[in-house]
Amino acid sequence: MADKFPEIETEGDLNNEFSSDFLSREKEVLGDEFTTDQDKQVYENSEDDEINEFKEQFPQVENNEEQQPQTQNSDDEFEGFESSKSNDVDLSSSQPIKEWKHRRDLEIQQREKVNEKKKNDILEKAQSTIDDFYENYNLKKENHSKDLKKEIEEFISKRDNFLKNGTLWDRVNELIDNVGELPETDDTRDKSKFKELLKKLKGKDNVPGAAGYA
């Protein structure tokens, strides 16, 4: 596009080009006389202004040397860190640490022995309690069986002796006397006459049923 449509020169561009060509020709003709003391001062001032402006825009260039010691200090800090780290590693294998580990192992072994003894004592006590329970249970059971057997024998002996003595009516009257007075009920029948009849049968061998029933 630039080849086909070349840039159009304006009037200002033509004037600048003309003035620059004119000054160049004058400088060639006059030489050193072309520049004055005021021109030198303006040139030096403009140069100083440019240098100051550059320094303001790029202050890092001047501080470069001042930052180098900081880098060295940071390196020293890392060296101290590495040295302390190496010292920690060395401390783990020191004699006090070894002695502490040995004491710790002994304490652990001692606690394990104590705990094992407590465990065995609890088991022995539990087993003894179980044995005592079954021993007492069996003993009580045996004693109860003996007492029951004795009561049965006494009851049978008493029964047999009761059946051997007197007549049937004698034994009936004996049972009535042992029972005593019966509690009153809603039954309106009079039992006194029946009791009198049973008493009349007592001690008589020739009355009906006196010998009992086979």
Task: From the structure above, extract its key features.
214 residues; mainly alpha; 3 domains; 6 helices; 77% helix; rod-shaped
Question: Could you characterize what this model shows?
Answer:
With 214 residues, this protein is mainly alpha-helical. The chain folds into three domains: 12-61; 100-164; 165-180 and 191-214, no CATH class. Helix content is 77%, strand content 0%. It has six helices and no strands. The protein has helices spanning 11-30, 37-57, 60-91, 95-164, 168-179, 192-201. Helix 5 packs across helix 6. It starts with 10 loop residues before the first helix and ends in a 13-residue tail after the last helix. Residues 61-65 have low confidence and may be disordered.
Quick overview of this protein structure:
This protein is mostly helical and 214 residues long. It has helices spanning 11-30, 37-57, 60-91, 95-164, 168-179, 192-201.
What layout of secondary structure does this protein have?
Layout: H1 11-30, H2 37-57, H3 60-91, H4 95-164, H5 168-179, H6 192-201
Helix pairs in contact: 5-6
Order of helices and strands: HHHHHH
Radius of gyration: 69 Å
Oligomer kind: single chain
The best one-word shape is rod-shaped
Mean pLDDT: 73
The helix count comes to: 6
Straight-line N-to-C gap: 155 Å
**Structural class assignment:** mainly alpha
Major pleated sheet: none
Low-confidence spans: 61-65
> What is the share of helical residues?
over 70%
Number of strands: 0
